[in-house]
Amino acid sequence: MLFTKISYTSLNSKQQENYNFHKIAALLADYGFTSIRLSDDWQGADFIAQHIDGNTFLKIQLKGRLTIEKKYQGKDIFIAFPYESFWYLYPHDEVVRYLLATSTIGKTTSWTEKGGYSINSLSRSLLDYIQRYKL
Fold first, then answer.
1. What is the rounded distance in angstroms from the CA atom of residue 25 to the CA atom of residue 18?
2. Which of 20, 27, 98, 122 is close enough to 127 for a disulfide, judged by CB 3.0 to 4.6 Å?
3. Which domains, ranges and CATH numbers included, belong to the chain?
4. Rounded to 5 degrees, what are φ and ψ at 54?
5. Smallest Cα–Cα separation from 69: which of 104, 107, 110, 41?
6. pTM here?
């Protein structure tokens, strides 16, 4: 059987989400997590990661870029996203507090009226901050 690698950009959005789930789930396995994909968002999560310690469960939302959304606040959600060949997994509310305190995101129409904000290209200072969440 021959295998041919696919181009991520050739996938539709649902296929990209499935692809991303498998990529991050494989990476989380290196940290002792087993991941369970959810058929629909449960409490804002796309999947649950359960640690081998039996006590740690992470509710994770997959995104294509660094994202904050009002609807995730107070739900103990982690956001996973790829950036420049690495994956990042961050506690949503902690990053919201940081971004609102250190930037003008809180004054944007996207945040105030639409309830969310995403960043496709990370500044040097934001990349320095987010490094703590790199897997």
1. 11
2. 122
3. 8-133 (3.40.1350)
4. 80, -5
5. 110
6. 0.92
